[in-house]
Structure formats: structure tokens, C-alpha cells
User: Fold Serine hydroxymethyltransferase from Streptomyces genisteinicus.
Amino acid sequence: MALPLPHPALTAADPELAALVGAEELLQAETLRLIPSENYVSAAVLEASGTVLQNKYSEGYPGRRYYEGQQNIDPVESLAVARAKALFGSDHANVQPYSGSPANLAVYLAFAEPGDTVMGMALPMGGHLTHGWGVSATGSWFRGVQYGVRRDTGLIDFDEVRDLALKERPRIIFCGGTALPRTIDFAAFAEIARETGAVLVADIAHIAGLVAGGAHPSPVPHVDVVSTTTHKTLRGPRGAMLMAREEHAKAVDKAVFPGLQGGPHNQTTAAIAVALKEAAAPSFRDYAHAVVANARALADALLERGHDLVSGGTDNHLILIDLTARDVPGKVAAKALDRAGIVVNYNTVPYDPRKPFDPSGIRIGTPSLTSRGLTTEHMPAVAEWIDRAVAAAAGGDEDTLAAVRAEVAGLMAAHPAPGLPV
Assistant:
């Protein structure tokens, strides 16, 4: 099994913190990580994240900084921008947003005024907080209206979306979310946005790697702005990017800086550049398609065991399991799975009668396990472990959870993770 990486300087300066880092390395090595927004970065991305670029302030953009000494920083950011534009085929890219939520806030700043109507998928239906949901600043500063999915299919009804958009006339329409297991029809959203005069934004934070690898259709030809994190399926550091049509480039850049942020995190920019180079390689295309193949195989195996999947399956990296029929709340199941060495998150399902902090579902995905080299051949075993652990959660069977954890650790030992020691 993997051993913690040596961190001599950290250990000498702060052994307590070093021990926690080592424990996390061991935990990530031994467990089956199924949270769809998590992944393993490569050793190169990890190394770039910890360079001396951390020491440098760089407010502004390449060639237009407010600090001197940018001889090396400007080329780093320019490299990341060029790679983003080439990989996604976009006119313009901004790699400075600190994370996905600030990137989405920059979109509002660029295209809307406080009080304007904005439209996005409702959070309980699979959307994101920053798409105008009430508890978010975006729902406080703007008038958020939400669309959902059909009760019978779990799919977006574009007739309903169009009717809502025509009625409410939003300034911005967001498509994308955090718990959408099906392909996003960007062309259908674009038609509605054109008809209503809205700015269309695709939030592809979850599927950016699938788009880059050709395993999901690209939004770039259809939308005004693309917002994405750089981790998740893209396998980069914790950061974000905004991509836009050339006509929106100045508005986007001005919204990010000086609108919302000061100096960019240059060490993160460097790691983004590395991840984008990795994502342009043929092997990454294979990875993206393998993520989808694994998700579909896992969904099929869960269906064979009688599990209720929202929308009946998946087209991407993500599966949403409704545990209502199993009489096990999602939170109880998630905590039991964690004790079994299977890391998931509890999640609302569409039209969930339970509260968000104690919902009916769990959300799982295949990016991390695919990064470790697991294939469709392993998915029946993963489904069996999930099934056994959920049943054990219902019955309070800790012995079964311990047995599953041992089996999981055995498989993980045979498939070392990128960026972790062996």
C-alpha cells in the first residue's frame, strides 16, 4: 500500500500538520473515491502548484501589470491562456478566477445589473448555488428563476424552459449543473437564448475534461460564455477559467480584474497550464471516454441490483442514486459507505421530499477511479460493494462494512493513484 510522501521541511517546521497531510495521502491511496467532483492530479500538476510562483504578485494581465518583475509570470499566464483556447476552440480565455463560484460571479458582473432576472437550473434538480439560487449571493443580488427536470424522466423539458424564458425574459441563462447525469443540449439552450435575447452561459465545471477529450459535446459553438473549474474531470488544480466569444472578452476580463479579484494565484496558473497540456494529449482523450464507459457500466450494474437511478442511467461521469425504495436516507448511506472505504456524497434527488442536509440520494462518479486505471471490468465489483454497504447501513451491520473496506483496499493497492507514492 502507498506510504505518505516525505515532507522534510514541513515535518521539521510543523510535524502536526505534516502528519495530517500524510494521513490524507494514505486515505486517498486506500479508498475508492467516487465523489464526481474529485480526481487525482498528476505529479507534474502537484509540483507546479507548489513552486516559487507562489511568491509573486501580478495584478493585471500579461503586458499590463501593476507590478514589476513579471518577466517569467507573463509567459506562464500567456501559455495557460493559449493552451485553453487551443484545447476548447474558444476565442478568448481568462485563467485567473480563483474558483468556480468567483468565475460565475464575474459573469454576473460582466452582463447584468443588481435586480436583473437570471435563470438557471434549480439546485434540488441538479443545478448550482451560483445559478441564481436563493441562499446564494446570486439569488440575493439578482432575481433568480429556475427550471427543473420532468418527474417521469428526470430530463430537462425544453418546452418548459422556453416558456419560462419567454415569460421571465432573463438577462442571463445558465445551463449546466452539479448533478446532471445526462448530455447537455447546448444547441437547444442557444435557440431559447436567441429567442429571448439572453446571454447564454455554459457552466461545464463537471464535464470540462469530457468536453476536452471529446466525450461530451462542446458548448463553445453555441454559447456566449463558458465557465469551468480546472479540477474535476479536467484533472488540474483547484482553479477556474472563463472562455468567451471575442466580443465579450473585454467585459469578462474587466469583471475578473479589477471587478472581483486582485492578484492571480500564479502557482495555480502554472498548474492549470500543465493540466491543459496533459489534456491535449491523445491519452487524455482515451481517459475521458473511459470515464464515460465506466460510469455507464457502473450504472448498468447498479440497475441490475435494483437501484433507482435518476433519469435511468448516465451519459457522462456522474450517477445519482435515489435510495427512497431502500428505506435508507442518503446521509446514512454516505456515512456507511465512507466507513466501508467508498467515498461519496449525499445529495438531493429531483422532487426530493427530504431536506437538503438529510436527502434521499447519493451522488457518485467515475473520474477518480478511472485515473487509477480501473476499467469496465471492475464496475460490477464496485456496484456490489455499494449494494452491500447500503444494505449494511440499513441494518447497522458494521462487520460487512469492515469487510468491504478490506476488499476495497486490496483493489486500490493494485492500482496506484497518480501523484501519490507507491
In short: The chain has two domains: 48-279, 282-413. Residues 48-279 form a domain with the Aspartate Aminotransferase; domain 2 fold (CATH 3.40.640.10). The mean pLDDT is 96. The first helix runs from residue 8 to 13.
